[in-house]
Amino acid sequence: MTRDTETSTTDRRSDRTKAAILRAARERFATQGYERTTIRAVASDAGIDPSMVMRYFGNKARLFDATLTIDLRLPDLTAVPTDELPQTLVRHFLKRWEGDPADDALLVLMRSAVTNEQAAARMHEIFAAQVAPALAAALGPELAAHRAGLVAAQLLGLGLTRYLLRLPAVTTLTPDEIEAGLAPAIQAVLDPN
Amino acid sequence: MTRDTETSTTDRRSDRTKAAILRAARERFATQGYERTTIRAVASDAGIDPSMVMRYFGNKARLFDATLTIDLRLPDLTAVPTDELPQTLVRHFLKRWEGDPADDALLVLMRSAVTNEQAAARMHEIFAAQVAPALAAALGPELAAHRAGLVAAQLLGLGLTRYLLRLPAVTTLTPDEIEAGLAPAIQAVLDPN
DNA sequence: ACTGTAGGCCAACATGTGTTGACTTTCCAG
DNA sequence: CTGGAAAGTCAACACATGTTGGCCTACAGT
User: Fold this and answer.
1) Pick from B102, B20, B184, B2: nearest CA to A193
2) A181 in a structural domain
3) Quick check: B72 and B113 in contact, CB under 8 A?
4) In terms of residue numbers, what domain contains A167?
5) B50 & B95 share domain
6) What pLDDT, in 10s, does the model give residues A99-157?
7) Which residue ranges carry the DNA-binding annotation (chains A, B) (predicted)?
8) What DSSP letter does each residue of A176-188 carry, written as one string?
9) Could you tell me if B82 and B63 lie in one domain?
10) Which residues 103-162 of A have a C-beta within 8 angstroms of B?
11) Assuming Cys at both sites, which of A37, A59, A142, B32 could form a disulfide with B36, CB separation 3.0 to 4.6 Å?
């Protein structure tokens, strides 16, 4: 598509198609989930032959796996005052998702993790590696251990109902309304009493 | 299995196998979702031939549809004091799910609704027909209209993380801990301020 | 006993899928 | 120029799945 005469260090031709495959795969997995996404469709989106997908990623499961590299990009929660923590969280996820939910890897993952063990396992990893530590740093380890799960439940519940199920009662709310409604709820979960 | 010499009014032989198919289908759809559930597997579970499934239900989509008759069995929320409403809700859903999540139709539906339009539409119906009115009766229509979605998000978020994704941080909590942690959160969502 | 019908089984078809291997084209190093 | 590897295409295999239609079997009504 674009001119590419500028040869950046390692700019093999395969890198571009590999990237195109990944982009197409993310899109498909995101909108249709693992089972309904076909190698043929991904290849077609990427403008190449299905066998290329196999050459670069081995098989469907590994392609899927390559798709699931996720960085929640959580801000440093120790820098925010405790009482602003809930709204910071809600705002952070809303911001991520309001852009283009269809290619946010976290939603991709949610959609698949519900029926796919591999994806569910990856979800556990992400929670353990990113969410839990961030909350532990902000709240102290004991409290976080008991409450992090419920916080995740609330945030994922929002993602589920608004972006995957698209429940009208949730999609009609504005981001501001959601922030105003949900932040106090998360605050309540975090309150130690 | 059981003796059935007592012929209750309309006890055709087909009714039993039809019921067996439905039971098997619920179980499969619940644990594997729509796509990964095969007619052959359902038939095998029910101990009959795949073609029987077609005879009774026409096709896979209609079998699925027959599976989705859901009654949340929400208690009469007007009978509970407003400040006990959240814990009543949390307890109600926990009770339903703690029994055998695998054959609770609501979880079946959630699992499928994430990738299946038909199921998602049914989810909308159930929310509109059961959750929204119950909350409207207890809270008044205006408040309910703005908050019911977030309440649903929180309850479904619980179901998602605990029973579908099985996040350790949530599965390790006891029902009592969940009730104690989540009820105040829902209360916060309902607080009009 | 006879027969029609509902309940059930079997074998096959059509299709879509993941995956493979052989063949062609591109393109750069020597 | 030229050879050989990298990048890509093509056609097919093997298999699972939804679905169909023909056949068998039990059994209730006559």
Assistant:
1) B184
2) yes
3) no
4) 77-190
5) no
6) 887 767 888 889 889 988 889 999 999 999 999 999 999 888 988 888 999 999 999 99
7) 38-57
8) HHHHHHHHHHHHH
9) no
10) 110-111, 113-115, 120, 123-124, 127-128, 132, 145-150, 152-158, 160-162
11) B32
